[in-house]
């Protein structure tokens, strides 16, 4: 069930220092994050460092994610302002999350953001998250999914697939 005709909040407070801010059409903000080989490998599965996404690729990705669910910037408070450090799309099938900024990886932000995704999907009346694909080499994401109660339900050549019952 797509999230059409549902009001997307401008922001979702995750904690005192982390929030989700509604995507505002500025896809160019994603470019530096997705040009980081770590992010690109863990989001797209591409290990060829000579292949980096360009602005058209990022624009298409953002347009797709924005139409498939609620696309947000993940923002972290630094001093008096919030900085975009990643993105997440709230949707009931394979909700993608990426932390672009290295210093914020492994700090628990992904777990907090995925908890916010779970809460939002419950608010919208969804009963499950299906097919959350995690690359086999992305052990931190596997651990996050399992910590939050996702069950591994299958695998492809490169990914493990996770589901979560939201009831």
Structural description of this entry:
The chain has 167 residues and is of the alpha+beta class. The protein is built from five helices and eight strands. Helix 1 packs across helix 3.
- Given helix and strand content, the structural type is alpha+beta
Query: How large is the radius of gyration?
Result: 15 Å
Average pLDDT figure: 94
Instruction: Tell me the helix content.
Output: 25-40%
Major sheet characteristics: 5 strands, antiparallel
Separation of termini?
17 Å
So what's the overall shape?
globular
Strand segment tally? 8
Helix/strand order: EEHHHEEEHEHEE
Q: TL;DR?
A:
With 167 residues, this protein is α+β, with helices and mostly antiparallel strands. It is built from 5 helices and 8 strands. It has helices at residues 28-35, 37-44, 55-68, 109-123, 139-147, and strands at 11-13, 18-22, 70-78, 81-90, 97-99, 128-135, 151-155, 159-165.
Structure characteristics:
single chain, 167 residues, alpha+beta, five-stranded antiparallel sheet, three-stranded antiparallel sheet, 8 strands, 30% strand, globular
Strand and helix layout:
Blueprint: E1 11-13, E2 18-22, H1 28-35, H2 37-44, H3 55-68, E3 70-78, E4 81-90, E5 97-99, H4 109-123, E6 128-135, H5 139-147, E7 151-155, E8 159-165
Antiparallel strand pairs: 1-2, 2-3, 3-4, 4-5, 6-8, 7-8
Helix pairs in contact: 1-3
């Amino acid at each position: 069930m797509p999230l059409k005709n549902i009001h997307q909040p401008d922001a979702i407070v995750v904690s005192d220092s982390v929030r989700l801010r509604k995507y505002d059409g500025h896809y160019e903000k994603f470019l530096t994050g997705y040009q980081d080989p770590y992010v690109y490998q863990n989001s797209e599965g591409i290990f060829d460092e000579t292949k980096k996404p360009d602005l058209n690729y990022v624009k298409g990705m953002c347009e797709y994610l924005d139409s498939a669910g609620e696309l947000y910037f993940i923002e972290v408070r630094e001093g008096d302002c919030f900085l975009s450090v990643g993105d997440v799309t709230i949707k009931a099938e394979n909700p993608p999350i990426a932390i672009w900024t290295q210093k914020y990886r492994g700090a628990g932000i992904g777990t907090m953001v995925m908890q916010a995704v779970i809460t939002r999907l419950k608010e919208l009346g969804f009963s499950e998250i299906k097919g959350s694909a995690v690359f086999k080499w992305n052990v931190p994401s596997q651990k996050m999914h399992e910590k939050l109660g996702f069950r591994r339900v299958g695998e492809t050549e490169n990914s493990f697939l996770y589901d979560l019952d939201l009831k």
